[in-house]
Design goal:
Elements (H helix, E strand, L loop, with lengths): L2 H4 L4 H13 L3 H19 L4 H21 L6 H10 L1 H10 L7 H6 L7 H7 L6 H16 L1
Helix pairs in contact: 2-3, 3-4, 4-8, 5-6, 6-9, 8-9
Length: 147
Amino acid sequence: MDERVKRISTPEKCEIFIKNALARDNIELANQARLRAVQLRAEKYGADTLVEKEALEAIFAYETVLSVKNGKKTRATRTWQMIERRGIIEAIERAVNRSSETQGYRALVEMNLGSRSFESVILRHPEVFSDEAIEISKTRVTEWART
C-alpha cells in the first residue's frame, strides 16, 4: 500500500483521496484508499477477534461495491440486520450457505478487495465455520479463479 494511503486516518479522508485519485485517473491509488477505508471502518466498529474484524471488513467492502455501483452511499441493510439477530460469524456463514453465491465478488476484485469476500474470510479461518460453509467457499473461490 502506498505510504500516502497508509497515513490516512479516517474513512472520510479516504473518500476525499479516492476522488482526487480518480480525477487523476489513478485507479490503483483509489482502490488502495478504498481498502484503507474498509479497514478503518472495521476498526471503528469494533471486533472481539481477528475473524470478526475480517468479517466486518468483508461487509464494509461489499458496501463499497454497492455504493460505487449505485453512485451513492449504500448499506448492506439485510446483512446488518442478520448480524444484529445472529452475530457476525453466523451471518457470514448463512450468507455463504445460500444456494446462490454472495453478490459482488467480481466488483470486489476490480477494486482490489477480492480478499475481503465472505468466502475468503471463511477459508482463512476454517476453524470457526462449518464444513459445509468451507466446502462452498472452496468451490466458489476455485470457480472464480478459473474465470
